[in-house]
Amino acid sequence: MAHAFKATIVEVRAVAPDHVELLLESPELSQAIPGQFCHVLTPGMLRRPISFSRIDAQRHQVGLLFQVVGSGTAWLAQRAVGESLDVMGPLGRGYEPPVDGRPWLLVGGGVGIPPLFAALERWGAGRRQPIQVVLGARRGDYLIMQDDFRALGVTPVLTTDDGSLGQRGTVIPAVIEWMVRQPESEVMACGPTPMLAALASAVPASAGPVQLALEQRMGCGIGACLACVVPAQPVGPEGPRYRRVCTEGPVFRREELVF
Amino acid sequence: MDLSVHLPRGLTLKNPVMAASGTFGFGPEYAAYVDINRLGGVSVKGISPDPWRGNPPPRVWETPDGLLNSIGLQNPGMDAFLKDDIPFLKTVDTAVIANIIGHTVEEYQRVAERLTQEPRVDAFEVNISCPNIKEGGIQFGHDPEQAYRVTRAVRQVTDRPLMVKVSPNVAEPWVIAEAAVEAGADMISAINTLVGMAIDFKTRRPGLGGRTGGLSGPAIKPVAVRIVYELASRLSVPIIGMGGIQSAEDVLEFFMAGAAAVMVGTITFQHPERMLEIIEALPRVLTQHGFQSLQEAVGAALPR
Ligand SMILES: Cc1cc2nc3c(=O)[nH]c(=O)nc-3n(C[C@H](O)[C@H](O)[C@H](O)COP(=O)(O)OP(=O)(O)OC[C@H]3O[C@@H](n4cnc5c(N)ncnc54)[C@H](O)[C@@H]3O)c2cc1C
Ligand SMILES: Cc1cc2nc3c(=O)[nH]c(=O)nc-3n(C[C@H](O)[C@H](O)[C@H](O)COP(=O)(O)O)c2cc1C
Ligand code: FES
Predict the structure, then answer these.
(1) What ipTM was reported for this prediction?
(2) What is the phi/psi pair of residue B279, to 5°?
(3) Does A221 sit in the ligand 3 pocket, CB within 6 Å?
(4) Share of chain A above pLDDT 90, in %
(5) Which residue did the predictor score with more confidence, B124 or A128?
(6) Pick from A11, A2, A10: which is nearest to A39 by CA?
C-alpha cells in the first residue's frame, strides 16, 4: 500500500537567487519517471506539487528544484540536511521515452527546466540523433541547471525576457529555427502555460510526439478532488472537457489539450 | 470499545468516521493510501443524472487553516458511476453513501430512482447545499419549500436510508432541516462549505475560476459545531456532523454537540491516513474524557 512517507534531505543547494535544490534520499521516489512529481507537506493546508529535477534509482536519490514564490516554498527553502520531508509520490503521468532515431527537442521555461533535465539524464545518454535544448527565463540568473546540461554534453540555447543572457525574448524563435532544420523532431516541454500554448502552435504538424507538462493548483494530488483540471479535448458544445493534471498529466500530448 | 453506529432503516456503520463527499472521489482513488475497509463509510462525489463539466480552473485556493473550492460538482453522471465505480465499491466492506445532485427536482429524483436499483448503494445523501453551482443545488437549500419538494421527490422513489445535507449559508439551517425531515429524510448531514472569495493579486480578479468558492477545513469547525448543536437541539433524527475535523478530539466535540456520526473531508488532502488514525485513537480519547461508550458522548453538551 502506498503511503505518505518521509524522505531525508541529504543535500541543500542554493542554485540561483531564490532557487533551491533539495536532494532527497528515498527508494520510493527514486522509482519516478521524468515528468512525474511529488506532493510535499508544508505548514499550509495543502501539500505543494514539485517535479523531480534528477532521479537516481541506483543511489536512491531524487532532486527537487524550486523557486521561492510563497509560504510553502519559503518554508522548504529553509530546510536543512538531515531533516525529512513528508511526501506522497511519485505521482502523475511522466514523459513517454523519446522515439529512437528521431531528433529530440527539449524546451524548458523557468522552474519548468528541472523535469527536462531529468528526462535528458534518463534518456539522452548514448543517443546519436541530434538533440537540442532550449531554456528560457525572465532574467539570466534564473536560467537554472545550465551546467547540468553541459555536463551531459549538451550546450543549451539560452533565452531571457530581459536579454540579460542569451537571446532576448521567448524560447519560441529558437524553437522555430530548430524545427525548420529538423522538422521531424519530437518535443518535450515544461514551463508557464503561455509558453506551452505558444509552443503548441509554433511546432509544425510534421513533428513527432509533442509532450507538454502543465501546472495547476492542486488539492489531493491523486485524482480524487477534481481541483487540478485544465481544458482538454474533446471540445463539446459547452466547451472543452476538463482533465486532471495530477493523474491524467502533468504530461499531456499536444493533441489532448486546448489552449 | 464497540464503535459501531446504528442509524435509521438499518444503516449500520462499523465506526462513526466516514469520508466526506467530494474529498474522496468515488472510492478507488485513495485505495492505495487508505484501507477503505476500515472506514465507517464513504460518501462519494456528488452524482447527477447526466455528466457535469464543473467550473473553470483554478478550482482551489488555500486560506489560513482552510481551503476554498469551486469544483462545480464535475462528475461523469450516474451511468458512468454505476459502470466504472460500483465494481470497485463491491470489493470493499464499508457503507457506501451516494451523494446526489440535480438542477431540478426531477433530476434529483431521476438519479435516486436509478441508483436505488443498485444494492451496493447503502444510503443517499441529498446535496441541496453546494454553493458552487449557479442554478439548482443551492436554491433548494435556501428555501424550506424547495427543500421539502426535493426530499419528497427522492423519498418517493427509494426506501434506502436518506440524509439531506444542509447549508451553513442561511440564517436558520434548522428550518431547512425540519422541512427535509417532514418530507421524509431519516437523517441530516451538516455542514456543507461556507461561501467565500479570495482575490488574486497578480490578476486583480477573484482567484477562483468560479469567482466564489466553498470554505472548508479546520477554519470552519466552530461554525459546524454550532450548527450541529442547533440541529441536534431541535430535531429528533440523527445528525451526521462535519466541518474541519482533523483529530479524534474534534470528532468527540461533534459527538458532544449532538452528532451521531461524522464525516471527514479536507484534512484527507494533507494526511490521507488521518481518518484511520482518528478511528484508532477514538476509544482512548473517549475514555480519557470520561465516556464509557460512544453513545454516552452523543449529545453530552446539549441542554437537558
Ligand atoms: C505538477 C507540478 C510540478 C511543479 N514542479 C515545480 C518545480 O519543479 N519547481 C518549482 O519551483 N515549482 C514547481 N511547481 C509549482 C509549485 O507547485 C508552486 O510554485 C508552489 O506550489 C507554490 O507554493 P507556495 O506556498 O510557495 O506559494 P503560495 O502562492 O503561497 O501557494 C498558495 C497555494 O497556491 C498553490 N500554487 C501557487 N503557485 C502554484 C503553481 N505555479 N502551480 C501549482 N500550484 C501553485 C500552492 O500549491 C498553494 O496551494 C509545480 C507545480 C505543479 C502543478
Ligand atoms: C474539494 C471539495 C469538494 C466537495 N464536493 C462536495 C460534493 O460533491 N458534495 C457535497 O455534498 N459536499 C462536497 N464538499 C463538502 C464536504 O463534503 C464537506 O461538507 C465540507 O468540506 C466540510 O468538511 P471538511 O471541513 O472536513 O472538509 C466538498 C468539499 C471539498 C473541499
Ligand atoms: S489534485 Fe485532486 S484531482 Fe488532481
Answers:
(1) 0.94
(2) -60, -40
(3) yes
(4) 93
(5) B124
(6) A2
The catalytic residue among B71, B86, B128, B130 is B130
For the CA of A227, the nearest atom of ligand 2: 1
Q: Which of B32, B35, B57 sits opposite A229 (nearest CB)?
A: B57
Nearest-Cα residue of chain A relative to residue B35: A1
The answer on A133 and A77 residing in a single domain is no
Does B23 contact chain A (CB < 8 Å)?
A: yes
Of the candidates B215, B212, B260, which has an alpha carbon nearest to the alpha carbon of residue B240? B260
A109 with A34, same domain: the answer is no
Whether A91 contacts B32, CB under 8 Å: no
Taking only the tens place, the pLDDT of each residue in B136-191 is 556 788 899 999 999 999 999 999 999 999 999 999 999 999 999 999 999 999 99
What is the rounded distance in angstroms from the CA atom of residue B290 to the CA atom of residue B256? 12
User: What pLDDT shows up at residue A1?
Assistant: 45
CATH at A132: 3.40.50.80
Domain architecture of chain B: domains with CATH: 5-57+73-194+217-297 (3.20.20.70)
Report yes or no: B272 at the A interface, CB cutoff 8 Å. Answer: yes
Element (DSSP H or E) covering residue B297: helix B294-297
Structural domain for A135, as ranges: 95-213
Please give the grid coordinates belonging to residue A70: 510563497
- Among A69, A91, A113, where does a domain finish? A91
pLDDT per residue over B98-110, tens digit each? Answer: 999 999 999 999 9
Same domain, A162 and A100: yes
For A148, what's the count of Cα atoms within 13 Å in the CB-facing half-sphere? 21
CA distance A170 to chain B (A): 21
Tell me the pTM.
0.96
Total of domains in chain A: 3
CA of A139 to the centre of ligand 2 (A): 42
- Could you tell me the three cell numbers for B287? 475514555
Pocket test for ligand 1, best of A111, A117, A212, A215 (most atoms within 8 A of CB): A215
Same domain for A114 and A199, yes or no, is: yes
State the Cα–Cα distance between residues B12 and A68, nearest whole angstrom. Answer: 49
Domain's final residue, options A213, A232, A247: A213
pLDDT in tens, B40-90: 999 999 999 999 999 999 999 999 999 999 999 999 999 999 999 999 999
Give yes or no for B24 touching A (CB within 8 A).
yes
* B244 labelled catalytic: no
